[in-house]
Specification:
Strand content: over 45%
Structural class: mainly beta
Order of helices and strands: EEEEEEEEEEE
Number of strands: 11
Number of helices: 0
Radius of gyration: 13 Å
Distance between the termini: 40 Å
């Protein structure tokens, strides 16, 4: 059974930083693209960042480009999201997702396993 467990969320002031982690177990992590999505209250889940299985390709939402960085450690079966220069509008539940083996995408339907989410709250 696939498990994705996020950690690292919390409360931070605007301009601050957080590092989210997602530990993956129960599947071939090394062949799966990974992604981060977020959902704010009353809004739809939106794409934040994605990284290919090799780590050679990354994509970001326009709203986070230059501030967030996605990375992965295959040896640890873990994907990370570094959040810098946080803004109140970044407040949301952040979800880690694993894509279909060998595929790459940035849309929710292109990911078939999801974590439970971790709350990020940015105060002004």
């Amino acid at each position: 059974q696939v498990q994705l467990v996020e950690s690292g969320g919390g409360l931070v002031q605007a301009g601050g930083s957080l590092r989210l982690s997602c530990a993956v177990s129960g599947r071939t992590f090394s062949r799966s693209a990974m992604g981060w999505f977020r959902q704010a209250p009353g809004k739809e889940r939106e794409f934040v960042a994605a990284i290919s299985w090799s780590g050679g390709r990354t994509d970001y939402a326009d709203s986070v480009t230059g501030r967030f960085t996605i990375s992965r450690d295959t040896a640890k079966n873990t994907v990370y999201l570094q959040l810098n220069s946080l803004k109140p509008e970044d407040t949301a539940v952040y979800y880690c997702a694993a894509g279909f083996a060998g595929a790459y995408g940035t849309r929710p339907y292109e990911f078939n396993s999801w974590g439970q989410g971790t709350q990020v709250t940015v105060s002004s």
